[in-house]
Amino acid sequence: MKSLHGTAGMLAVVVAVCGCSRQHKAAPAPQATAVGSALVVSSGDKQLGPAGAPLGQPLVMQVNDDQGNGVTGALVMFTGPAGVKFDPSELLTDSSGQVSTNVTLGNTSGRYQLTAVTNNKAGHALPVQVPELAAGYQEELGYQVQRTYCSRCHNPESTPEQVSNHDNLSVPPHSFDQGDTYNKLSDADLTAIIGHGGPAMNLSVLMPPYGKTLTKAEIQAVIAYIRLVSDPPYQAPGLVYAKQ
Amino acid sequence: MRTPNKLWNSWRGLFRDPIRPFGISSALLLIVLAIAPAKNHFSEWRQYQRGYLKLIRNRPDALVLQRHFEPGIHQIWLPDLGVVDRCETCHLGLTETSLGDIRMQPWSRHPVIPHSMQQFGCVICHRGQGAATTVAAAHDSTLSPDEPILPARYDEASCGQCHHVALEGTPTLNQGREILARYGCVRCHAIKLPDGSAEQPTDEPPPLTHIADKTTREWIYAWLKDPKSYAASATMPNFLLSDDDARDISAFLIANSVAESGDTATLKVASATNADPTAGASLYGESFCASCHATQNAAGNLVGGDLGPELTAVGTKVKPEWLTAWLRDPKIYDGATSMPHYRFTDQQLALLSGFLESKTNSDLLANVHLDAATPEQLAHGKQLVEEYGCAACHEIRGVSRPDNYGPELSRVGSKPVAQLVFTTGMAETLPAYLSNKIERPRSFGPGLHMPQYTFTPAQVDALTTALLSLTDRSYTLPAKMRIAAVQQTAYEPAGRAGHLMTDLNCMACHRINGHGGDMAPDLTWEGSSVQKQWLDAFLKNPNTLRPALIRRMPRFNLTDEERATLTDYMMTVYQNPTIDRDAMPLRGYLPAMVEHGRELFYGKYACQSCHMVDPAQDKGYIGPPLSAVGSRLNAEWIFLWLKNPQQLRPGTIEPDRDMSDDDAHALTAFLMMQTGSGNKGARK
Q1: B112 touches chain A (CB under 8 A)
Q2: A156 and chain B in contact, CB less than 8 A
Q3: Residue B643: closest CA among chain A residues belongs to which residue?
Q4: Are the beta carbons of B144 and B418 closer than 8 angstroms?
């Protein structure tokens, strides 16, 4: 009876170990059959998606040779900050020299700097930085608010669903990703412009005030969205300590 | 006496000294006593607290952070909500605004949210075991009834526990709830909400009681085999039927169909007389069919609205005589349809049905050859219709609507992992189970009837989020925290005008007194807003108020009498009780005041950003053009609108400019002078 128990226990252990090993077995890394000399982003960079969720479009990279033609069978590896997942994280280029991976960003909002790497003939790594943007609750709210109230003038792109008013204005507004413009303005400046209109900061009168239409939280959310999408990236001011 | 002696001897042999045992037992006692403090000292959470102190030590803001830091277990205790959360014991930087640059868990700052952590705790949103003090027990425990942490991508599900109304900040949840209602999920799976109401479907599956009048058995067969092969935007899922099953169901539906009065099998279809070949397409455009119906363009993209069915290959589906009768008066075939009764002339009917009949897909029925059905096949067809719960959505003669056809999902978001059956290769969590069930419902075992939907990954995530919001906790949280969804009222317009509005299905697009659609403006206060002559002229020939919109009001060929009925009713009934629309005159403003208004319009308020008054010069393209606003709106309405637009139409994007009465008066005077030339019918 005792030996039976022992056998059953051992069996259970063996099964458990097998189960574990099956779960943890990583897929074997694909072997490169060719190398290229340049790695470029094809599409899917600078996407904005909810934090922790997969981005809407796959990230597509292309490996080129010296003549700029796609290379088939080159190995591309993706890495990112903690929390970022790639599906798959390493793969070989297809017949057009492209690789496509689905990206899930981390759980915190902000800008994620991803890296794609392929090796050239000399065996040197060719890293390429690909930025992607994760929106938290506040940025997501800001995105929705600006889509309703701001983007018809601030977004120069017209779609059949939303015709842009950008080019109709005698002083064209700045698109929200223009970091060179927005990064110079502090949160207080932006709050003043949104709340009291362009003239509050000596800017265009065509920008109306939204202080009585939007709530404080909505205005802050729009600012958080602008900070997230700005290019070059926005650097929050550090703390200032008075010297004693 | 030997035995005690022997015992004494062995005692002495062991310790030699009679005092020594006390020493040893004291030492043992001390060691035992030290175990608890040592365990405490080396506990996981203390390591995280030490790690945090190390992290902040050399930062410029170290002083502030160190002052905020308190050692020991931190706890948020909210007896009303059933929350005992010790998460902040390790997650020390949650409320530190200066830690925005730290992404490393458990010390990163919490993103900005509209609630205070001290009022809501952590587990209400993130799930997990709040009282646990080890990482594994707090985050990953799946012991029933414990819940593991909710993956961040489904966070919005937690908002949905209290917020049953659509929030601006939860687009994923809103989309998921919309799918639940639109794709008929809630027709099979009941979803009851904590306040006693239930999720209601928003789709309109057509009745199949007299379907033989509308279409052929071959089309039904092809549709049943794969709805997407007929229409890319079909909301009916694929039931993965075998050829024989589709043959028998189609035979049953046709045989079961009984002609009703008004059916059209014998109707003569007239073809359009001496018409230009593009006239049908123009009429389709002019009637704004595309506001509700989509068609595929040459590039394969769907263009048009999704209120009605896609019409890309409608000519392959419907019988010409049915189509003509339907376009003449859709309510005869289906009394509950949202399609308006357009009042087309016979020539228009012929043109439009001819145009729609030409929209075909020759591949769809090319290989469908069905023999006459045997009685066994018909019986089998009926059996399948009952088995697959077709009557949960469609009205079918002789088959009653099944109650609770699918499992109820009212609390599916709290289903314990122990009750779930996983397939091989999937993560053993509730979110993974739900999303797999949505994506591959039949892979969970043989004999399952749930059909196959074609959702994008984003739609699957949204639907999973909506299902995860249906938790036990949403029932146990205090009722005062619940924010109910905005329910449609039961408002119906009365009298002759009411009949007319039902016939025209005005409320499919317009909302009145809390009832109706949201495609077109709310008409609850239309009578206070517009001038009567304008309304009459608009109903006669709706011109475009907002050029930037694609979806527009169609023309219904109303008779003079019908227009008068509608106009009188709307001008009398749809008034805001606080607005006296005649309080300000339509004409006769002083030129100086008008001029002042012009200056305000172009200067101080820069209205030309969004509106045009002089189409030759102004370019604003967001709000409606105002070149004829003086013959459209009442002066009092304009004045009150300028004072506070959101009060008259909640949610309008025109900003509230906090205008003084004087400025609003002057602007109103200026705008009332803009009587335009585009509105000839409005003023003589």
Answers
A1: yes
A2: no
A3: A212
A4: yes
Alpha-carbon gap, residue B341 to B556, rounded angstroms: 8
Tokens for B670, please give them: 């200026």
Q: For the domain with range B171-202+405-481, which CATH number is right: 2.60.40.420, 3.30.1360.120, 3.40.1260.10, 1.10.10.10?
A: 2.60.40.420
A144 touches chain B (CB under 8 A): yes
Point out the least confidently predicted range of B160-169, B315-324, B550-559.
B550-559
A206 and A131 in a common domain: no
- Whether B543 and B555 have beta carbons less than 8 Å apart is answered as no
Tokens of residue B431, six digits: 């979110």
Q: Do B103 and A108 make contact, defined as CB atoms within 8 angstroms?
A: yes
Residue indicated by tokens 């099944």: B402
Task: Specify the pTM.
Answer: 0.87
Query: Is the Cβ of A27 closer than 8 Å to some Cβ of chain B?
Result: no
Q: How far apart are CA B338 and CA B327, in angstroms?
A: 13
Mean pLDDT of B86-110: 88
Tell me: do A143 and A203 sit in the same domain: yes
Residue of B nearest to A237 (CA): B98
Interface of B with A in 71-100 (CB under 8 A): 98, 100
**What pLDDT was estimated at residue B1?**
52
Among the four given CATH numbers 1.10.10.60, 3.40.50.11240, 1.10.760.10, 3.40.50.280, the one describing domain B495-573: 1.10.760.10
Residue A13 lies in a domain: no
**Can you give the length of chain A in residues?**
244
Looking up tokens 């009092």, which residue turns up? B636
Angle at B248 between CA B245 and CA B249, to 5 degrees: 85
Domain contains A18 = no
* CB-nearest partner of A108 from B111, B113, B457: B111
**In the block, residue with structure tokens 């769809």:** B364
**Least Cα separation, residue A190 to chain B (angstroms):** 17
DSSP for B283-339 reads HHHHTTGGGT-EEE-TTS-EEE-SSS---TTHHHHB-HHHHHHHHH-HHHH-TT---
Domain limits of chain B? 2-38, 44-149, 171-202+405-481, 211-379, 495-573, 591-672
DSSP B603: I
The C-alpha atoms of residue B120 and residue B593 are separated, in whole angstroms, by 55
- Token couple for B284: 């389709």
Pick from B315, B309, B308, B231: nearest CA to B269? B315
What percentage of chain B reaches a pLDDT higher than 90? 62
Q: Which of B98, B111, B155 sits opposite A138 (nearest CB)?
A: B111
- If phi > 0 it is left, if psi is from -120 to 50 it is alpha, else beta; for residue B498 that is alpha
**Mutation target among B68, B108, B112 for the A interface, most CBs of A within 10 A:** B112
- Cα angle B169, B171, B176; round to 5: 140
A214: CATH: 1.10.760.10
Domain of residue A160, residue span: 137-229
Residue B118 has which token pair? 């001290």
Q: What mean pLDDT is reported for chain B?
A: 89
Number of domains in chain A: 2
Q: Does A206 touch chain B (CB under 8 A)?
A: yes
**B67 — contact with chain A (CB < 8 Å)?**
no
B 604-623 near A (Cβ less than 8 A) = 604-606, 609-610, 619-622
Q: Collect the ranges in chain A with pLDDT lower than 50.
A: 1-25, 242-244
